[in-house]
Design brief:
Layout (H helix, E strand, L loop, with lengths): L1 H12 L11 E7 L4 E5 L12 H11 L5 E8 L9 H10 E10 L4 E6 H4 L11
Parallel strand pairs: 3-4
Antiparallel strand pairs: 1-2, 1-3, 4-5
The structure holds tetrahydrodeoxyuridine.
Length: 130
């Protein structure tokens, strides 16, 4: 079941626009309803204006109707078991739960699985803002 999510992240990575870092990244989210939303990193000549693969995937997820996120896969061509950056951990935690599985991939498939709680302990919680 996780291999298809790996393949979705890998296909997304092939669409990365990363001419500056030459570091393509792909991410894919699966919901409890079985829907998959994927994305790649997109860079901009004014470097800070680019954004991560996870953020693209979240944009597709929101615009596609959202839902409970059960699994996330991330892959980078030049780094085995890439972990989402700090900002993306916080963005993912906005929509995923602490028990959501995060699959860290290499070129062949899922190499390690952790939970959101493990990669973002003590993340900022916005409950009080609601
Ligand atoms: N990048 C991601 O897409 N996700 C991450 O979690 C880490 C970094 C991208 C951003 C930039 O386009 C490139 O990798 C190099 O930092």
């Amino acid at each position: 079941m996780t291999h298809d999510l790996f393949l979705a992240a890998k296909s997304a990575m092939a669409k990365a626009y990363a001419p500056y870092s030459k570091f393509p990244v792909g991410a894919a989210l699966r919901t409890a309803a079985g829907r998959v939303f994927a994305g790649a990193n997109i860079e901009v000549a004014s470097y800070p204006e680019g954004w991560c693969a996870e953020t693209t995937a979240l944009g597709h997820y929101i615009m596609g109707g959202g839902g409970e996120i059960t699994d996330i896969a991330v892959i980078a061509e030049r780094m085995d078991k890439i972990t989402p950056c700090g900002g993306c951990r916080q963005r993912l935690a906005e929509f995923a739960g602490p028990q959501t599985r995060l699959h860290l991939c290499d070129a062949n498939g899922v190499a390690q699985t952790v939970t959101m709680a493990e990669i973002l302990p003590f993340g900022f919680r916005g409950d009080i803002l609601k």
